[in-house]
Fold this sequence. Notes:
The chain has about 725 residues and is α/β, with parallel strands linked by helices.
Amino acid sequence: CCRRLLGLNYGMIPDASGGHNLAIDTNGRQVTVTSIHAGIEPKVLEHVLIHSSTFDRVRSIRNQFHGKTIFCAIDRMESLKGIPLKMLGIERFLHRCPEFVGKIVLIQVGISAFERGDDYTKTKAEVLQTVANINTKWPGTVQFKECQEKEMRLQQRLALLSAADVVMVTPIRDGLNLIPLEFTFAHQDVLTNPPDGRKRGLCILSEFSSCTRVMRGALHVNPWKISEIANAFHQSLIMSNEERIRRIKCASEFVTRVTTRRWALAVMLDLKGVHKNIEAGTYAGAGLGLGFRLLGMETGFVPLEINVVAKAFKNSRSRLILLDYGGTILSNDNLDSLQRFQVVNKTRAPSFPTKALLNTLKDLCADKRNIVFVVSGKERHSLSKMLPNIPNLGLAAEHGMFVSWPTNNTSTRRRWETLVSDIDKSWRSIAITIMEVYTSRTHGSYIEETEMKVLWQYRDADPEFGYLQSRELEDHLSNVLRSFPVDILHGGVEEGGYVEVRPKGVNKGVLSTHVLKNMHKFSTHTKIDFGLVLGDDHCDEPMLSVMRQVGRRAAECRIARTGEEDNLPPIPATITLVDVSPCDEHVSQDLQMFTCTVGKKPSAAENYLNDVDEVHELLESLVKVATRDHKFHSAVDLRNLSGPSLVPGSGGLGGFMTGGGFMSPTGMPVVPNSFLSPSMPNNDLSGSGHGMKKSSSMGEFKISGEQKEKRMSNSLNEFLGTIEQEDEDEDIFF
């Protein structure tokens, strides 16, 4: 149900007592499931059974059908309860065994289900028609009665169950149903009292009923097979007394042991035994209507603030930017199963990056302080075709197996290196041969081959059967390829699933550390002080996890060096711990690392962006920061002023005033005497640079000597001269 209807994975997780619980993985959360069938309360049922009104009702029913074996059933009037199939079963039984005509009766109670609408109307009409046909052939065989639910409470129900010899619960789909448990308890006296001549106490249960797994003494049938229902009628009538007693004893064991009180206690103990996550976490809702879901993420998993990234980018000197391709800087072709299949079989062209995106990447790569890599799962020829002629852009294909270092020369073909040696490829033919066997037996699956890896895709197969076949294939490949240097991965279950075989030690996390260690090949910088890593799916998680640990290690070193208070949050469970110490010599202790996933979902990344458009906005913002002109040409910007004097005749710059402006011979702005405060003598400006200092406001001058008494300003210039300089607001706005 979880995998087929909801597309979720499930498995066993450890609990606090050292055992294991069944849990469902959903959106970063593990939801523990306890499966304990509810029971009945024997004392309550016993009190009802010994009541005089119950005795009177039982005696009345037995007298009405004296000498007959009574079969009874209590069902809601809806198609899922399988009442028409039950009628067909008794009809076939009487056709095959006419000797039992007049010796059995079926009391069918139908609970009105008006809320079911047309389903109720159609079911009622079909049942009435079938009952009429049976009673026409064998009068009095079926006693059908429809009533409201309030007319069939516990007391009325127990009276009917006590009077009956056999109970039938044969739904085609059912939830919790306690009628078989109540019937078994009502006939427990068979085990202690002497035989009374009645063949009573048996249950006939559908294998689709919830209580089938706990009522092991019952006769189990498939309600869709009319012959099985007919055989169950016959078997219950001819069964020996010893076998019937054994079956009743087996069913009675559960009824008396698992009471309502014990069931509640077991549920509470399971709840108490669930291993609680001590790490801080948060839950957020996403989606609307039927698409609403609850996401479990670490505390602090917030949208990436472009303003903060741009500020860190501006102040850095050596930057590393790692970008995933599909789903991050370009819309993902893998989300639609048909589109994915067409791209793999080359009947559909993949999506190409826009001209604006290519220009953004070119601008980023043009800055010598930037090291930009696009890391993709695509093959190298496809990636080169998608991102052509971009100087200083590094590429990594097939999750890092093939690396092309940044270069200025775009006129020649790219040179590629392999992350690991891949000389022995004999494993490919073996893996493909095995996968072909599973492809032939799994409709909707297909094989995908690249230069480095081989995948068995089952995203279009039946979810449950495809998953079972994938687990079997994974085990088969693990045994056969044990002696080869390959990794066998089972991933992408959320998107449909695949089994992948590729050379050992290849993933985007290994690639990211490989790039850091080989920076000297393509950059004059030896240490990075800014990192930006963007990804979108499970293939990018190793890269996000490794680079986040690199950033955390740099932060820990910085705290140890400066003695600052350690306010770093605990490492979340989504991060796979690896040793990143070999990267220390290539990372500055002032490193600011930003890891981000596309889409709000559980991830090893620290932040998220909502979609590809926001990724484009982020990259364009970084380009603007890098190319923005920091010079201000307004008259109020005096930050570029320097020198001992700006007044003509002071021996400083030798400046002069023109009729319409204030320019020195070198083109620098000067302040005329008329702009100075009357209280400021000219000789205060003739010192060695102590007359004024750089300021972004007009008329801000520092007067040497003793601090003068504060008074009312006589002019605007005098007022501006009293404003103290503040730090420039370095926030980045776009």
